[in-house]
Amino acid sequence: MGEIRKRHLKMNLPAGQSAFLWGPRRVGKSHWLREAFGSSDVQFIDLLKTDLFAELVARPSLLRERFDGRTVIIDEVQKVPALLDEVHGLIETRGAQFVLTGSSARKLRRSHANLLAGRAWRFELGPLSYGEVSGFDLNQALQSGLLPPHFLSTDPKQDLRAYIGDYLKEEIAGEAATRNLPAFAEFLRVAALTNSELLNYTNVARETGISAKVVRGYFEILEDTLLGARLPPWSRAKNRRMILTEKFYFFDVGVANHLARRTPVPGTPDYGKSFEHFILMELMNYRRYRAPDLPLAFWRTSTGREVDFLVGDLDLAVECKSAARVHDGDLVGLRALAEEQGFRHRIVVSLESEPRRLDDGIEVLPWDIFLDRLWAGEFV
């Protein structure tokens, strides 16, 4: 089992500058902030504590009355949206510095909460990355996922079951304001089964027995609560007719696999899907921490030619192959893309043991070497 190293996230705030830190529950926001700021140097307000939550819901002005001049961290601020008016006032009148964590802006928007009108910088923390773990085990990561408590757990299946039962199916269903919990739970299962595939609301609706309109709303909830994201199609084609439908990915490979009730065994299609999902998680973390405006898309033609991920402005094209040997047929998509667009790096990320470069410039890289080079900034 690996050990967690220092996280890639950096939050270099000037004096008096406030910030939001967004991220799904259990990615480690509170732990990161305690390490980054030091518990003795901040007022830490944890709204998951029921007594403190009850006090501040009843009297948000207590925040102002208890302010002592130190940096204030408020954990899960979306639970008491009215606190943001007090935060705004303290920033304006006393030059206070706040760091506000949240796992959903949905409730804040619904309640027309004060989002500080640009006075707070935005940061995001995702699941663990390969470089944040010593002794990284790929197969373990694909099965347990990369939420810190699950990755380090001696029984990740039980932890995933509890996370999904207690958080996804209940708290997120509450975000949906739905009383049909069984339908929402079935939606989560079907959405996980279609993870990494083209979004088709009608098909998901048919499988779950609810309307396509409701399904669309459920996907929006997953995005608003940072539990998933759409991957847009590349739309800058010159000569080919492109597929313009988005794909959807859950935020964590272990959560997706548990919801879909599948175990990624090497050599199976499920393993290949999980491997692709894991590489996307790394690309998304790279964007979160190093290049927030980095374009990220996939490429697929109407005739079925496809490249898994396109990164940056003609910087990097990535095809994922969970095989110990990449064959000529695995390169069709990257070669078709080269006829359409000239990407500086065209790479097959694989389970091969040694890197190699083909005559047409395509590189075949072991997954760990690819990630080392990605985080070293060689590609983007």
- Please give the domain count: 2
The structure class reads: alpha/beta
The percent range for strand residues is 15-25%
Oligomeric state of the chains?
A: single chain
Tell me about the biggest sheet? Answer: 6 strands, mixed
The H/E string reads: EEHEHHEHEHEEHHHHHHEEHHEEEHEEEH
> How many strand units?
15
Mean pLDDT, rounded to whole units? Answer: 91
Number of helices: 15
- Give the end-to-end Cα distance, rounded to a whole number of Å: 31 Å
Strands of the biggest beta sheet: in what spatial order? 10-11-12-13-15-14
Share of helix among residues? 40-55%
Q: Which ranges are low-confidence, i.e. pLDDT below 50, for 5 or more consecutive residues?
A: none
Gyration radius over CA: 22 Å
Shape designation: globular
Present the secondary structure layout.
Elements: E1 3-4, E2 18-22, H1 29-37, E3 42-46, H2 50-58, H3 62-66, E4 71-75, H4 83-94, E5 98-102, H5 106-110, E6 120-124, E7 133-134, H6 138-144, H7 148-151, H8 156-175, H9 181-193, H10 201-208, H11 212-224, E8 228-231, E9 247-250, H12 253-260, H13 269-290, E10 296-300, E11 306-311, E12 316-320, H14 332-340, E13 345-350, E14 356-357, E15 363-366, H15 367-375
Helix pairs in contact: 6-12, 8-9, 8-12, 9-10, 9-12, 10-11, 13-15
Structure overview:
With 380 residues, the protein is α/β, with parallel strands linked by helices. The protein has two domains: 3-124, Rossmann fold (3-Layer(aba) Sandwich); 130-375, no CATH class. The chain has 15 helices and 15 strands. It has helices spanning 29-37, 50-58, 62-66, 83-94, 106-110, 138-144, 148-151, 156-175, 181-193, 201-208, 212-224, 253-260, 269-290, 332-340, 367-375; strands at 3-4, 18-22, 42-46, 71-75, 98-102, 120-124, 133-134, 228-231, 247-250, 296-300, 306-311, 316-320, 345-350, 356-357, 363-366. The protein has a six-stranded mixed sheet with strand order 10-11-12-13-15-14, with helices on both faces. Strands 3-4-5-2-6 form a five-stranded parallel sheet, covered by helices on one side. The mean pLDDT is 91.
